Amino acid sequence: MHFDRVILTEFKNYHYQQIDCNPRLNCFVGLNGMGKTNLLDAIYYLCMGKSYFGLNDQYIAYHESPFFRLEGHGVINGHSEKIVVKAPLGQRKTMERNDLPYERLGDHVGLIPVVFAAPDDIQLIHEGSEARRRLLDNTLSQLDQHYLQLLLRYNHLLKQRNAALKQFADTHTFNPALLAVYDEQLVDPAQYIYTRRSDFMERFLPLLKANHYTISGKREEADCRYESPLQQASMAELLHKNLDKDRLLGRTTGGIHRDDLQFMLEGQPIKRFASQGQTKSFLLALKLAQYDLMREEKNMSPLLLLDDIFDKLDQERVEHLMQLLLEGPYGQLFVSDTHPDRIAAIAARMSVPFFNYYIEKGVATLQNELNI
């Protein structure tokens, strides 16, 4: 799988931009704030139908433009593909594959597997459990359409149940029959999601350990523990047991929406004890493990988007990391960097084909290329 060309129209700080893509390595270089990350996000959007950063579409269009449009041309399983996103503001967004619109945007998820590593990933370590559940959901949704549909259903039912609980609390009323309807419908989706997350972690953990062992120079051992209320009781039991608490608080206190991941390094919580360098190495290992698992299950190489991952790394670590990425089993890479020639120089020395774009104020200019 790879993109040959990506076209942005009225997307973020790009009025119009065409990017011709090398099937191996593409570098976006320039100062901060010029639009490097926006190019990566456009590629992610073509894969997932939404921004990696959770932005609402109304904040994505260029300045005061009434729409934005993305177009990607590439090859998937040996077949030419054209993906188009059309997002007129205030109207329903549409996605097309080879000029045929999807009935549901979710049907596109998983066609073009993608992994994005960005500075904002530090939230996985320091923020609440929601960020870590997104990592699980992002991966599993690309691997399993049924998982995605049940996750959407679970979240919709949970929202309805919470609204009912809040209304009961505000009006000092209670309708057990209505709550029973929500409870019954939540059980099966919750069990499926829990089972898939548990199975995922069994396959994911060895990959995380192996990647981190390599990146850390074989010095430290990483670990990751999956925690879920469903490890202690079924969803039906949780809803029944927590009913009084739920009514008091006006929300559902138990379920797979409370799942979490605990990240460890040498047996200690990363959040408390890891240095900045250790944290960065762990996060990269986390994303490369995500990549490895997706490649194994999809039997194809996902796109790998790396945004400013070399910040604060010395040249030796940058060289080691690029060697890992360029000699390893990775497909098409898109990498951003503030250093104008650093990645291109490493790629040229390794005789790896690449395109190097200089980004300035929403304009991408191809500076040099190496085709082999």
CATH class of the largest domain: Alpha Beta
CATH architecture of the largest domain: 3-Layer(aba) Sandwich
Instruction: Please state how the strands of the largest beta sheet are arranged side by side.
Output: 2-1-4-5-6-7
Residue fraction in strands: 15-25%
Low-confidence blocks of residues: none
How would you sum up this structure, described in words?
The protein has a six-stranded antiparallel sheet, covered by helices on one side. The model has no long low-confidence stretch (mean pLDDT 94). It starts with a strand and ends with a strand. Helix content is 43%, strand content 24%. It is α/β, with parallel strands linked by helices and 372 residues long. The chain has two domains: 1-113 and 303-372, 3-Layer(aba) Sandwich (Rossmann fold); 125-299, RecF/RecN/SMC, N-terminal domain (Glutathione S-transferase Yfyf (Class Pi), Chain A, domain 2). It is globular, with a radius of gyration of 22 Å. The protein has helices at residues 36-48, 123-126, 129-143, 145-171, 176-215, 235-241, 243-249, 270-273, 276-298, 315-327, 342-349, and strands spanning 2-11, 14-20, 25-29, 67-76, 79-88, 94-97, 100-101, 114-117, 222-227, 260-265, 268-269, 303-307, 333-337, 354-360, 363-370.
Write the layout of secondary structure elements.
Elements: E1 2-11, E2 14-20, E3 25-29, H1 36-48, E4 67-76, E5 79-88, E6 94-97, E7 100-101, E8 114-117, H2 123-126, H3 129-143, H4 145-171, H5 176-215, E9 222-227, H6 235-241, H7 243-249, E10 260-265, E11 268-269, H8 270-273, H9 276-298, E12 303-307, H10 315-327, E13 333-337, H11 342-349, E14 354-360, E15 363-370
Parallel strand pairs: 3-13, 3-14, 8-12, 12-13
Antiparallel strand pairs: 1-2, 1-4, 4-5, 5-6, 6-7, 9-10, 10-11, 14-15
